[in-house]
Design goal:
By secondary structure, the protein is an all-alpha fold. It has eleven helices and no strands.
């Protein structure tokens, strides 16, 4: 039986060292200027949001070009909004970088997750503001706990990913078993290739998680509604233009979906090039490398969820849209 060996040459070692130094330099610049970048993104969103409010008021005054500009501006807002810091980009990037999934499936997951963001924002305002007629302070409190809960959901997804990677058992539906001859079982170590029919650690193909992981991913992206969509929906409801608020929220979701789908495509091709460059990883070595990557991805999701949980915008008694510059 042939075993594959990984040869480390001085050229490969120098390349890895240069890549590590470049990654550390980028990470340093990212951390140092992160606060400035976040503030710039917030200011840009406030500036754009004021224009959306203006277009909504134009439509209310029967200036119908305002409705067209509202839909178009909302799409651009959603596209640019996803360029800034956000949970959807981090979740999909981490998942696709550590899980080998088909490109079309990745795009579909991204689209559904982004559309779910818009739908959750609409339901949030429809139920709490329209049906229950809650005050602005109560809406801010509800938004606060919804974002806290979404962070916990992302953490749970990260734990599920880690559990699947290390081979924790999960519940399965009962199956009808056929009679088989009783055979003596043999002892195997985890990761050994055998034909005993027993399940040891998951192989590389099992780590994608199938439709369950896809559902987790869609919910992780979509369960946290877009703040801009909530703001425009609340204002639209206040001026009696809720239908146009819904149009704006869906346009934002489509813009966000396009932006994140582009990112997902880039991550997909980068991952495939990395795998092609390491073609020596086959069989058991590929399964081990895939398992480690998935574990790292799950840990990153948990850590990100903790940061997200602790950085939720505080409750505002006057309503969140006051702080957003409306």
């Amino acid at each position: 039986m042939k075993t594959s060996s990984i040869k480390v040459t001085p050229a490969n070692f120098a390349g890895l060292g240069a890549g590590a130094l470049l990654l550390l330099a980028i990470l340093y610049l990212f951390i140092r200027h992160w606060a400035e970048f976040v503030q710039y993104c917030i200011n840009a969103q406030i500036y754009m949001h004021r224009y959306l409010v203006l277009y909504l008021l134009q439509q209310r005054n029967h200036q119908y070009s305002g409705g067209v500009m509202l839909a178009l501006g909302s799409f651009i807002y959603g596209f640019l909004h996803s360029v800034g810091p956000g949970h959807g980009k981090f979740v999909i990037t981490t998942y696709l970088a550590t899980h080998r999934r088909q490109l079309n499936a990745s795009r579909l997951i991204t689209l559904l997750g982004s559309l779910m963001q818009g739908v959750v924002a609409i339901l949030f305002v429809l139920i709490l503001a329209v049906a229950l007629n809650l005050s602005m302070g109560d809406l801010s409190l509800s938004r606060y706990w919804l974002e806290k809960g979404s962070a916990l959901f992302i953490a749970a997804f990260g734990l599920v990913v880690i559990g699947r990677a290390i081979g924790l058992p999960r519940r399965r539906l009962p199956k009808i078993k056929t009679l088989r001859p009783i055979a003596k079982t043999a002892q195997h170590s985890p990761g050994d290739d055998c034909a005993c029919g027993h399940r040891h650690l998951p192989n590389a193909a099992d780590l994608t998680g199938g439709w369950r992981n896809a559902l987790w991913l869609i919910l992780s992206i979509g369960i946290r509604p877009c703040s801009g969509a909530i703001l425009i929906l609340v204002f639209a409801n206040a001026v009696g233009m809720f239908t146009w608020g819904v149009i704006s929220a869906i346009s934002m979701a489509l813009g966000t979906a396009l932006s994140i789908m582009i990112l997902a495509t880039l991550v997909h091709h980068a991952r495939e090039k990395l795998i092609a460059a390491n073609d020596h990883l086959t069989g058991k070595h590929l399964a081990q490398a895939s398992r480690m990557a998935v574990i790292v991805g799950g840990v990153l999701l948990v850590l990100f969820a903790l940061v997200l949980f602790s950085s939720v915008i505080p409750v505002s008694a006057n309503g969140d849209f006051i702080a957003a510059g409306c």
